[in-house]
Specification:
heterodimer; A: about 325 residues; mainly alpha; MetI-like fold; 3 domains; two-stranded antiparallel ribbon; 15 helices; about 0% strand; B: about 350 residues; alpha+beta; Rossmann fold; OB fold (Dihydrolipoamide Acetyltransferase, E2P); 6-stranded mixed sheet; 10 helices; 20 strands; elongated
Chain lengths: ~325, ~350
């Protein structure tokens, strides 16, 4: 029978589509705001009412990456003409690029903070998901004495708000000289994510029939070979979903990054708000920093979207 | 090919005992079937032989060598399961190659290709070689599973209900194929099933498991004709053996159901005076207008080659087979008897056959 829709069904359908559109617009509005501000000239960033139509420019990004200071006096026309295009953009904004004694351009703090974020988030995600997967496999496949207690203990680390332990953690880190180090943040974020990763991965691995590995064991493979050849490919969906969650948590973490890092290992979240320009807050630069900051998560999630969709609905289909 | 021996195997899972003092021997080249209900310990036995479980007590010997401490990889046994035994991301060819690629075997690539092709031809799956396993039907999957076992040329084949997930027609075909294959290869098979038809039709020897204990081991005809206890009598044969309570008095079986029929003289003596369960196969009973016992027809099942007639005698029901040509009406009064030589006497309290005791 052909799918014939009644009039009320058509109406309902339209209402549903309109509602979804409205919700989507509400959710996307802040992202649009940040993205558009990142390309606005400075004087249009804070107009009331907001400027919607404007000539996009790249000056916020140029300023984001360069160290600048306020211009005391306007550059001479010769100076201006001799400057490269990005320096002209800075001049246009009433600022000048800071150079060292040999005339080399000084970069702002942003690129290194961004790299810090990337290093800390990527390494801690790999560690949390890797260790979590192995732990989950152990709990899933072997009889562990006190298994339920262990699992509860692992989960219990999530039961208090992390900020509660921020001060003691800070003191401990100072003792171990882990303050403002990549290693310190990596350990911290791995610890945050590990319990989550163990529980999520255990769910995924429990769903993989153990017959697969047992067949491999009998076929002449070691437990480790069976794990890597059979279990890991089957768990790819779960690993992808877990990795996205862990990455987002590590990437977005603000409170501990603010307390534990100052410069060397500072990540982007505490840095961006502090980057308020050389005079008044330059919102376009902040928006540019934020815009670049949201790209890695968006790209990572986009690349893994197929796995994610299957991963999110895991357990919905019972064998 | 190999000889398997299990000595005094006990396996417990926490408080639950899966196997208790199990002794089992499978001769080289034998098709041995372990028959039992769900939870009887069949799969545990198989997993212990495969090295996937360690017995709590006892030893496993393959070709006379104690392999109790060996891992599954070292035992050189092949395992075919009811399902989930094919690797889902691989093609049929990759599945067949997988056991040959193991480090402990080291098969040359052209030798590997030759072996895979030969197995694929034998099992008639050569047209499927490049297909992913999730695109196969149930029967094709089990063929590939069996192929993956054969390609290795293992010492022992272990099969855990490999045919149970298939539909009836296919099961029958594969049953014959598997039996032929075993004879052609001259391989040692340890085959686990809950299906007594599979056991009877394929096994050289059958071991009946009940609650973690091996109740009886014998050829299909021994198990069928001379069950060691009422459990074996009930679990083998379709319809199962009739078990009728009563006692023995002067060469006559006096049943609680109210009829008396003669039993063979050889069965006398041992059973006098105590409560007895008489066991008689449906095909050893017959309808006869001059027979001594009377009953009413309760139900008639037509199976084409024969009819299975259920008779109501007193409170009880007995089943017998009769020619498909016989016309019987429900509730019709009939007279019946049995072959006195075929009656098996069981002690009613212990359920043990008196023949085995003496």
């Amino acid at each position: 029978m052909a799918a014939v829709k009644t009039r009320s069904e058509v109406a309902l359908n339209r209402i549903a589509i309109v509602s979804v559109l409205i919700v989507t617009i509400i959710f996307l509005a802040p992202i649009y705001w940040i993205a558009s501000t990142a390309f606005k000239p400075r004087h249009l960033a804070t107009t009331i009412p907001p400027t919607v139509v404007f000539q996009p420019e790249t000056s916020p990004f140029v300023k984001l990456f360069l160290r600048r200071s306020q211009l005391r006096e306007q550059p001479t026309p010769e100076e201006y003409a001799a400057a490269p295009w990005w320096e002209q953009l800075v001049f246009d904004g009433g600022e000048k690029v800071v150079r060292d004694g040999r005339g080399n351009v000084q970069f702002s703090g942003y690129p290194s903070r961004f790299m810090n974020s990337l290093i800390v988030a990527v390494v801690s995600t790999i560690l949390a998901v890797g260790m979590g997967t192995l732990t989950a496999y152990g709990f899933s496949r072997f009889k562990v004495a006190g298994e339920q207690d262990w699992l509860f203990f692992i989960l219990s680390t999530r039961m208090l708000p992390p900020v509660v332990v921020a001060i003691p953690m800070f003191l401990m880190y100072r003792w171990f000289a882990l303050n403002d180090t990549h290693l310190g943040l990596i350990i911290l974020y791995t610890a945050f994510n590990l319990s989550f990763s163990v529980w999520l991965m255990k769910g995924f691995i429990d769903e993989i029939p153990r017959e697969y590995e047992e067949a491999a064991l009998v076929d002449g493979y070691t437990r480790m070979e069976a794990f890597f050849k059979i279990v890991l490919p089957e768990a790819a969906t779960g690993i992808a979903a877990t990795a996205v969650f862990c990455f987002i948590i590590a990437w977005n973490e603000y409170a501990f990054a603010l307390i534990m890092t100052r410069r060397d290992a500072q990540t982007a979240p505490p840095f961006i708000p502090s980057q308020v320009g050389s005079g008044l807050p330059d919102w376009t630069v902040i928006a540019a920093g934020t815009f670049l900051f949201l790209l890695p998560v968006a790209i990572f999630t986009f690349l893994l979207r197929n796995h994610l969709l299957r991963g999110m609905s895991f357990g919905a289909i019972r064998k | 090919m190999a000889h398997i021996e299990l000595r005094n195997i006990t396996k417990t899972f926490g408080a639950k005992t899966a196997l208790k003092g199990l002794d089992l021997e499978v001769e080289d080249g034998q098709f041995f079937v372990l028959l039992g209900e769900t939870g009887a310990g069949k799969t545990t036995t198989l997993r212990i032989v495969a090295g996937l479980e360690k017995p709590t007590e006892g030893t496993v010997l393959i070709d006379g060598v104690d392999v109790s401490d060996w891992g599954a990889a070292e035992r050189d046994v092949a395992l075919v399961l009811q399902q989930y035994s094919l690797y889902p991301r691989y093609t049929v060819r990759e599945n067949l190659e997988f056991p040959l690629k193991s480090k402990i075997r080291k098969v040359e690539p052209d030798d590997m290709a030759r072996r895979v092709d030969r197995v694929a031809r034998t099992l008639r799956i050569d047209h499927l070689l490049d297909r992913k396993t999730d695109r196969l039907s149930g029967g094709e999957m089990q063929r590939v599973s069996i192929g993956r076992a054969i390609v290795r040329q293992p010492r022992v084949f272990l099969m855990d209900e490999p045919l149970s997930a298939l539909d009836a027609k296919l099961r029958e075909t594969l049953r014959t194929e598997l039996k032929n294959l075993q004879m052609n290869l001259g391989a040692t098979f340890l085959f686990v099933t809950h299906d007594q038809v599979e056991a009877m039709s394929m096994g050289d020897r059958i071991g009946v498991l009940d609650n973690g204990r091996l109740v009886q081991v014998g050829t299909p005809s021994e198990i069928y004709g001379n069950p060691r206890n009422t459990f074996v009598a009930r679990s083998v044969g379709s319809p199962p053996m009739n078990l009728i309570d009563g006692s023995l008095s002067g060469g006559l079986a006096v049943t609680d159901a109210g009829f008396s029929l003669p039993v063979a003289a050889s069965a006398n003596g041992a059973g006098n005076g105590r409560p007895i369960t008489f066991g008689i196969r449906p095909e050893d009973m017959f309808l006869d207008p001059g027979a001594p016992a009377e009953a009413a027809v309760h139900d008639v099942e037509n199976h084409g080659v024969a009819k299975i007639v259920t008779l109501r005698v007193g409170e009880g029901l007995v089943r017998l087979t009769t020619s498909a040509r016989d016309r019987l009406a429900i509730d019709e009064q009939v007279r019946f008897s049995w072959d006195p030589e075929k009656v098996v006497l069981f002690d009613k309290t212990s359920g043990l056959s008196l023949r085995h005791n003496t």
